[in-house]
Amino acid sequence: MAPSRSKPVHLQMMLVIVFSLLVCIFAAPAFAQESASSESTKPDLICHTSKASECYPRIFQPTDEFQTVHDDQEIPSGLHVRLNIWTGQKEAKINVSGEGDPSLEGLPVDRAVVMVDPEQQHQDTPRIPKGAPAYEPVGKVKGPEHESVAFHEGLKMLKKGVSKYGPAFGDALEGLEELSHDLYYGLKIAEDSDAVKALFCLMSGPQLPAAAGAIPRDQQAAAILAGALQNNPTALKEVTKAWPKLVDSKCRNTNEALRISLYSSVVPSQNNDGTSAQQAAARVKSKVAVINGLLKDDSFRTEFLKESGMASLLKVLMPQQEEWAGAQRKVGQLVLDNFLDQDMGAVLGQWPKTPKLADKQCSTEESQTAEGCWDYHVARIVKATKASKGEWSRELNDRLAAVRKQQDKDEKHREL
């Protein structure tokens, strides 16, 4: 009988298996190192064209101001991210704890919408059937199961008007301000033209002194309007629909047409002490928020420019006290978003129309609020604050310079 060879064969198979395991074990670190090396060589910039100026960082670089986030950018955790309801653009900035607290300034808090499904963004646009009704981006606003009794009582008190603004009236305004951020209650306020007029009149009326720790009435009214208009296109449509009827009506507390008193209400009052300046700046900031909301409407924007509303806003940039920094930033963002930054929904070419004026001319009292002097006042703020790239004053300064450069080219072309 021949000797069995099963043992040598079995031994050979065992050696092959052991050798294979050793190869896998030593190859794994090399593969991991290769993957890490591949990741480390991933470019820091994303470029979709050959122009270097159109490249942007792979990892989003946040600043203190909201900036547009590109679809293919990576967003670090912990940022304040929002979806601009007017442009559909995702924006982000450094998150500041407690920023925009309405208890401090009477202003509405930004409502962020951050979840975006990239797969849905790249789907083909559906074909719209011929004769289909116009698309309404905001559907019917669903009301609460039980409406707030305090809300309706507050509206009655607001429309009735009171000769003395006591604590009860202040409490009513505070309740309306809290509910105005809600889509349903914000729309209910906007649909009531008498309530809207009362709020505009209260907002643009005399800046009466407030009790210690209390928010001034004009600031409360502005906060209610701003809350109703913020991220609520349906409410904006209702307010701007009523505006042509309200614009020439007079308020009892000013005896002026709203078209005059509203725009002049953002002009800073003269205050010498820091406390008064802080309160005056907070009042103006809340009113600028209302103007910013209304400017999203084409007809209001046209009228605002015609009635020299920009001159009133320019005066907000003139105080040099640090208490005015927040209000000035609000004005700068308004100008960028509505007139100079197309990515934020601005309609280019509407403003500015006149050429830049010389610094010497803009330093005089007669010309300091001229349209051509925006450059002068913004440049002063850039210099005083040592603003870097990404800050509102630097961005506004650069965009104004680009407009002026184009204006010079157009003028030379006309001369030819």
UniProtKB/TrEMBL annotation:
<dbReference type="GO" id="GO:0005783">
    <property type="term" value="C:endoplasmic reticulum"/>
</dbReference>
<protein>
    <recommendedName>
        <fullName>Nucleotide exchange factor SIL1</fullName>
    </recommendedName>
</protein>
<keyword id="KW-0811">Translocation</keyword>
<keyword id="KW-0732">Signal</keyword>
<keyword id="KW-0256">Endoplasmic reticulum</keyword>
<keyword id="KW-0653">Protein transport</keyword>
<keyword id="KW-0813">Transport</keyword>
<dbReference type="GO" id="GO:0015031">
    <property type="term" value="P:protein transport"/>
</dbReference>
<comment type="similarity">
    <text>Belongs to the SIL1 family.</text>
</comment>
<comment type="subunit">
    <text>Interacts with KAR2.</text>
</comment>
<feature type="signal peptide">
    <location>
        <begin position="1"/>
        <end position="32"/>
    </location>
</feature>
<dbReference type="GO" id="GO:0000774">
    <property type="term" value="F:adenyl-nucleotide exchange factor activity"/>
</dbReference>
<dbReference type="InterPro" id="IPR011989">
    <property type="entry name" value="ARM-like"/>
</dbReference>
<dbReference type="InterPro" id="IPR031884">
    <property type="entry name" value="Sil1_fungi"/>
</dbReference>
<dbReference type="Pfam" id="PF16782">
    <property type="entry name" value="SIL1"/>
</dbReference>
